[in-house]
Design brief:
The structure holds two protein chains of two kinds. By secondary structure, chain A is mainly alpha-helical. Chain A has helices spanning about 1-20, 25-50, 65-80, 80-90, 100-120, 145-170, 180-205, 215-240, 250-280, 285-290, 300-320, 325-350, 370-400. Chain A has one domain: Formate dehydrogenase/DMSO reductase fold. Chain A has 13 helices and no strands. Chain A is globular, with a radius of gyration of 22 Å. Chain B has a domain at about 100-315: Alpha-Beta Plaits (2-Layer Sandwich). Helices cover about 30% and strands about 15% of the residues of chain B. Chain B has a four-stranded mixed sheet with strand order 10-2-12-11. A two-stranded parallel sheet of chain B has the order 1-8. A two-stranded antiparallel ribbon of chain B has the order 3-4. In chain B, about 40% of the residues are buried. Classes of the chains: A mainly alpha, B alpha+beta. Chains A and B meet through α2 and α6 of A and α1, α6, α7 and β7 of B.
């Protein structure tokens, strides 16, 4: 028992140390992220003192970019299943060794989600009121209490799966199936649940006709399964560029098919929604009118949503054409989908739900500088976490950081400076 | 599995100490940057609104014993005295048996003078900067109850204006309140007498209730409320008009500090045309019972929401 604990502590210590070791590009990247994260922390400190008045939010538009980013990132986290399903259900070989990068992305995304909801709280000092047992959790009536449970549960599931598999690899031991496979399958259902519950947060509000539509849930999933795998496609190429980890083009193309199909469904659902809002011509379409065309001289969101729609349509066309089998075009399509969906989930879903208010007032919302800095800080922190996870996991998966070489000097300069040219055997 | 390793690092002592020096510099620089980024927190004491340990650890309203409540009230009275220089009288007024409050508002009479809005602010110790108001008066064109046609910012020299009627909207004290359902920490609930209240010391400020309310009745303290000392109303209730803190919700509570002590709400008392009626619906002889019995049409705002408001609008003619 004591030896086991000691071994585990050595493992953690070596992982922690390797996070601080790398070439100059690594230091530059991590340094830059740290600087942005600290600017964000500084902005948040100001917000703690002066209150949410330093944001662009108001009683009229009472949620803004914090909740928008939160919503988008829940989708990113949920999208890890789009790698898990091919591997664990369809035994996809190409993705087999890559699925952990998707799960680690989910961990980083959930950390960002939790940060975004925390910065949105007026009284973060009272977070303990949410803890079951200690405080008062309004479960199962409040969808927000569901969200707290499913998000933290999903975080734990993924931390367990990744941590266990990595530690087994580190010990060169075969992982015990019963100790992770049930969790993998639970996580698949759980991933769908986190985004569904997040959609229900909005859908459940009868006073907000723009959200109170059953299509919101399906649209959340479709857009998440577009943007999430798109991010993973880009992330995998970055990993391939900076390490000599074996990632085949075929794996990337498998993910391409997922992005492709999801994007088609996403655009289709958008068409359904637009039809319903505009054709019937009821006054309940006021938010959609505000979003797409502006209302009574207020047009704040119009440029955003048309940018999103243009990006999504271009991305869909590229994905449908055979050119997107080439990585250059695929990357453009992924980039456009990510930005398009980020706008759609944020400026396109959260904000217009508040405009006009239930009493018909139209008040525009523009995020303040301080609010933007907090967001950038959280994104930087999330990327910092993901980079560290990759920095630890790649050498472990390659067998370069293992129990066998314990006690050897820290590996340094282990990464090739230039990408290996022959890393994609066909 | 195990790849070949480079020979152990045989760097000289000088190189090692240089590396350690650089590490030290990096660590020192990092800590300095961290401290610098947290510097705004130094203003917390004077600017912010996070208070004592007692408040941080305070229990949920429904779990407070009478002894706890005595202590809590003493704390609140002390805080108000320190901040505003006068000793308030804070009470924890409970709902009365056999009472369910209902509000009726005569839209034929209302002239849109907004006296109720300001009387409410004065009575309920709302922040004056930024000013928080519980009542929003809509100027509506004749013939429509569609709030989207309402004008929130009318600024007429003289009211009423021809061709319009005026509709004040405040918390509707719903029988099925969506705000209560969504609150993740039960910080807002419906009391026996029909008033939906907020425990300002329990609210975490997520503003989910504000998004859920179909009547836009809830208000958030985006910053520390500011009330001039001479404007404080010292007659306070725990669930009512005691001063709020930064980062929590508030809303109309039918002037709990008055109505649970047998008085009318401030908005009713100030109304110059008698458009506002308030009382106990369980008492068949009350004015509100008479109105709801005798008027052919009365309106619950957004009836289709299924919220079943305890706030009724009606017309004389």
């Amino acid at each position: 028992m004591i030896t086991a604990a000691r071994n585990y502590l050595v493992f953690l210590r070596r992982c922690a140390r390797i996070a601080f070791v790398g070439d100059w590009r690594y230091y530059a990247w991590m340094g830059a992220l740290t600087v942005v994260a600290l600017f964000g922390l500084n902005a948040y400190a100001k917000q703690l003192v002066h209150g949410l008045a330093v944001t662009g939010m108001s009683d009229e538009v009472s949620w803004g970019v914090y909740i928008a980013n939160f919503t988008f990132l829940v989708g990113v986290a949920a999208a890890a299943v789009m790698m898990v399903i091919p591997v664990y259900i369809y035994d996809n070989e190409e993705l087999h060794d890559l699925v952990i990068f998707g799960e680690l992305l989910a961990v980083a995304a959930i950390i960002m989600c939790l940060a975004f909801v925390t910065v949105d709280l007026g009284r973060p000092d009272r977070f303990w009121h949410l803890i079951p047992g200690l405080g008062q959790m309004n479960f199962p009536r409040s969808m927000l209490s569901w969200d707290v449970l499913v998000l933290n549960g999903y975080l734990l599931l993924n931390v367990h799966i990744c941590g266990y598999l990595l530690y087994c690899r580190y010990q060169s031991k075969k992982p015990a199936k019963w100790f992770y496979i049930p969790f993998v399958f639970t996580a698949i259902l759980w991933a769908v649940s986190i985004h569904t519950v997040t959609a229900f947060l909005y859908v459940g509000l009868g006073g907000r006709p723009f959200w109170n539509a059953s299509i919101v849930g399906p649209r959340f999933l479709a857009s998440a399964f577009t943007a999430g795998p798109a991010i993973i496609i880009l992330a995998l190429q970055i990993i391939r560029h900076f390490t000599n980890y074996r990632i085949t083009d075929k794996a990337l193309l498998t993910l391409r098919s997922i992005v492709q199909v999801s994007m088609i469904i996403n655009v289709f659902l958008l068409v359904c929604e637009v039809f319903k809002e505009f054709y019937s011509g009821t006054t309940h379409g006021a938010s959609a009118k505000y979003l797409f065309f502006g209302l009574h001289g207020h047009h704040a969101l119009v440029p955003w949503i048309w940018t999103a729609i243009t990006f999504n349509l271009i991305a869909m066309v590229i994905l449908l054409l055979p050119v997107s089998r080439g990585l250059k075009y695929l990357n453009v399509a992924c980039g456009l989908s990510i930005v398009g969906i980020w706008i759609e989930k944020g400026m396109g879903l959260v904000i217009p739900g508040f405009i006009p208010t239930p009493l018909g007032a139209i008040v525009d919302y523009v995020p303040s500088l301080n609010e933007t800095l907090v967001c950038l800080g959280i994104w930087a922190f999330g990327l910092l976490c993901y980079t560290i996870f990759l920095r630890m996991s790649v050498p472990i998966l390659q067998g370069r950081l293992s129990k066998a070489n314990e006690g050897r000097p820290e590996i340094q300069g282990d990464e090739p400076l230039a990408p290996l040219s022959a890393h994609t055997p066909h | 599995m195990s790849p070949s390793f480079p020979p152990p690092d045989k760097s000289s002592d000088a190189a090692m100490s240089r590396r350690n020096f650089l590490r030290g510099c990096a660590a020192f620089g990092g800590l300095t940057a961290l401290a610098a980024s947290l510097a705004p927190l130094r203003e917390m004491g004077e600017m912010g609104d996070y208070t004592s340990k007692e408040q941080f650890l305070q229990k949920y309203y429904k779990e407070l014993t009478p002894e706890d409540m005595t202590k809590v009230i003493a704390r609140i009275e002390g805080e108000v005295q320190r901040q505003y220089g006068l000793r308030p009288h804070v009470r924890d007024l409970k709902p009365m048996d056999g009472v369910e409050f209902v509000y009726c508002l005569n839209l034929t009479r209302c002239i849109g003078c907004r006296k109720c809005v300001h009387a409410c602010v004065a009575e309920n110790n709302q922040s004056r900067n930024p000013e928080i108001q519980y009542i929003r008066v809509l100027k509506m064109p004749h013939g429509s109850m569609d709030v989207e046609k309402g004008d929130h910012t009318y600024d007429a020299k003289q009211v009423p204006e021809k061709g319009f009627f005026y509709m004040p909207v405040q918390c509707q004290q719903c029988k099925n309140p969506p705000c209560v359902k969504v609150c993740p920490v039960n910080a807002t609930w419906q009391e026996k007498d029909g008033i939906t209240v907020i425990d300002y010391d329990w609210c975490i400020g997520c503003r989910y209730c504000e998004a859920a309310c179909p009547y836009w009745a809830r208000r958030f303290n985006f910053t520390k409320p500011e009330i001039p000392r001479e404007r404080i109303n010292p007659n306070m209730a725990y669930l009512g008009n005691r001063p709020r803190k930064q980062g929590v919700m508030e809303k109309c509570h039918f002037c709990i500090q008055r109505t649970r002590a047998g008085r009318y709400p401030a908005c009713l008392e100030v109304c110059p045309v008698g458009a506002r009626k308030f009382g106990n619906i369980l008492d068949p002889d009350s004015e509100v019972s008479y109105i709801l019995r005798e008027k052919r049409v009365f309106i619950q705002l957004k009836e289709e929401m299924g919220t079943s408001p305890r706030f009724f609008y009606y017309f004389d003619k």
